[in-house]
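so i finally got all the pieces together for this one. its two components total, 684 residues if u count the protein bits. some of the lines might not be protein, just check the labels. i wanna see the whole assembly predicted at once instead of chain by chain like last time, that was a mess tbh
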Amino acid sequence: MPDPANAAPRERDDADDHDTKGNGAGGSRVLAATMTGFARTLRAAGVGADHQRTQGMLRALRHLDAADREQVYWAGRLTLCAGPDDIPRYDRCFAAYFGGERARPSRGAPPVTIVRHTVTPGGPDGGEGADGHATPATASRTEVLRTRDVSRVTPAELAEIHRLMALLRVPRERRRSRRFTPAHRGRLDVGRTVKETLRQGGEPARLRRMTHRTRPRRVVLLADVSGSMAPYADTLLRFAHALVRSEPRATEVYSVGTRLTRVTAELRHRDPGAAMREVSRVIPDWSGGTRLGEELKEFLDGGSAARGAVVVIASDGWERGDPALLGAQMARLSRLARRVVWVNPHKGREGYQPLTGGMRAALPYVDAFVAGHSLAAFQELAERLSHA
Amino acid sequence: MPHRTTRSSDVGSPAELAALLGERGYLADDGLTTACYLALRMGRPLFLEGEAGVGKTELAKTLAAVLGAPLIRLQCYEGLDASQALYDWDFARQLLHLKAAEATGATDAATLEGELYDRRFLIARPLLRALETQPSVLLVDEIDRADDEFEAFLLEVLSDFTISVPELGTISAPVPPVVVVTSNRTRDVHDALKRRCLYHWLEHPSFEREVAILLRRLPGCTETLAADVADAARRLRGAGLVKPPGVAETLDWAEALLTLGARDLDPGLAAATLGAVLKYREDQQAVLRDGVLHRA
């Protein structure tokens, strides 16, 4: 990768090269070096301030006063940031970098690793088992594994379950789009019919028809990664990975706990192991408490990702916050979403009763309440998501 | 009130632009002014994100007024495609032309076909219209509602400001239009598109700015009423509502209160006009129950 600092100083501009404010030729090189350094600090803090954006910032500065702190701030913010999440990071870096001290180019605490075993995806038998020898997955063995509670299996069995999970394909139910596609029957396609008539010099052509296209219905998964869900979080996120990989454009995944974090982009990674590492890096609140109500509110306030979607909440409902808030948000959610599915790992246990405050508040607004403790349970869930 | 219009190249500084926007009743803060200024000077689209009602669309309208340019609006929705955004052929007129030519005995097929794909049969949709209109302000409203395929297509148009019509050739804009793209962030817009733009996250205005906006936009509004309404709006935004009010709602509310002859925020009138500012029943109930409108 080319070092931006070497390539930066004065590239061609959009025909407005001449109006440079307050920085001569020598000054502009210093400025470029300073600003590329700043962009590097930002990248270290997780803002996607790439080369192209850095160039944009330098161009913007030519129209502004590079000696004015305020204007430098805005030139950078407008060109280097790409979303509201970037802005607090930008502010911190700006204060640190231009306040005299350099921001530490690290991401803070080392990431928590949740990958318990490395599994070769798609390998003939999931790689070496933890017990030292490769175990071929026979049909009956798989069948037994399918129904085992993932919190009570050996590491080798869990690896096998995760390997099968990686193979899971989750097609989506289809919904009608506004767009049309040519078809044999359906509404008259005036455009195509006339176009064809024109091509034949005005001779009436065959009538062309069209029908509505269909698109996959979006699935939004909210995965609880709080402490009480710890034995299931890994498997749950692997299911999320299979979901995203099946329909990358029609899936959104968020982790919930004490913070709402969007992890869809991280889960797009093809390799499950790599995706899990990425996810573990970005989730800030592993094994913390649960404030589902507040996070659900944040999720719903953040836009209408839930509108028309099938929303899956995977949590045991151990709500530390106010169950009334959770209930109110669930009511909102049920009005926005196409369907709400609640996955609770404990539901697979015999004699389980949804008695926690959170679960009791949420259940009236849930269309389906399902188990999520085993491979079989997740396969059933996948089935549910692929049919209306 | 007549305003003089300004060419985008004549705007000398962000402060000057702020004054021009202010003359037309849009009070922008430093960040937004700088964003608009850079958009004009660098010829880059301005990508505005922020909650509904913070004034994203209004900004495009005001920019158009400042530049004396028509505002060309492309409202995005799911299923929007090139023939609705770019151009389409007027098939009916083409067919009529063909029939008319036949009636007069025209026989040269090549000439006839050439005539059929003449510019006059091309219907310009917003993007093409913006390229052909000099100067113009193009508002691509709520891009997050369009399909993601549409973004790639838009990126192409916004990169070159050129549209090629196979039957006609290339149409390009000598001076690119001023482009404002808005998003309510219901989904992530592709990074490639954002990278092409200047990105600005629009916040609700500060208390002082909101008071100034109310006074500027509503003749007859007393300073007491403006301050009371802005203060109440600030508290409503902090009350954890389903839909916190934007500037548009604050303005509606103040106008409703003014219409009823209020000179300050009388609690009775406030409760009676709550529908102008809060559009969810739960929000209205919560506000009345918790006494958010009553100052501590």
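Chain A is about 45% helix and 15% strand.
Chain A touches chain B through 47 residues (CB under 8 Å).
anyway lmk what u think
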